[in-house]
Amino acid sequence: SFWYGKEKLTFEQLVRLLKGFKKKNPQVSLAINADRDSSVQSLVNVLDAAQKAGINSIGLIAKERDEGTH
Q1: Less CB within 10 Å around the terminal CB: N or C of the chain?
Q2: 6 pLDDT higher than 90
Q3: pTM for this prediction
Q4: From the CB of residue 28, how many other CB atoms can be counted at a distance below 10 Å?
Q5: Looking at residues 58-68, what average pLDDT do you find?
Q6: In Å, how far from its chain's centre is CA 41?
Q7: Which pLDDT band, with edges at 50, 70 and 90, does 65 fall under?
Q8: Where are the alpha helices (DSSP H) in 4-61?
C-alpha cells in the first residue's frame, strides 16, 4: 500500500500525485518514509512511480533503532 498523509493510494494514483508535484515544481524532491514492515518490492514500486513522474531527486528517511530492538 502507498500512503500520502492519511490517504491510501493505488500505484496509478501515486504516479498521478507525483506528476502533479513535478508539474508544480520541476525541482521537486521525494522523501520516502517506509515503515519497518514495508517490503523491498514496495520501495521499488515507489521508485518506479517517481521515475514515471520524472522525479530524480529521491531520499530515504531512516529511523534509529530503539535500544534492545533486534
Answers
A1: C
A2: yes
A3: 0.81
A4: 17
A5: 76
A6: 12
A7: low
A8: 11-24, 40-53
Side chain identity, residue 9: L
- Return the half-sphere exposure (C-beta side, CA atoms, 13 A cut-off) of residue 13: 8
pLDDT of residue 47: 95
What is the DSSP secondary structure assignment for residue 17, as one 8-state letter?
H
Number of helices followed by number of strands (H, E) in the chain: 2, 4
Whether the per-residue pLDDT at 14 is higher than 80: the answer is yes
Query: Cα angle at 59 between 4 and 35, to 5 degrees?
Result: 50
Record the cell numbers describing residue 14, joined without a space.
Answer: 501515486
| Contact yes or no for 18/9 (Cβ under 8 A) | no
C-alpha cell at 35: 515503515
Sign of the alpha-carbon dihedral angle for 21, 23, 24, 30: positive
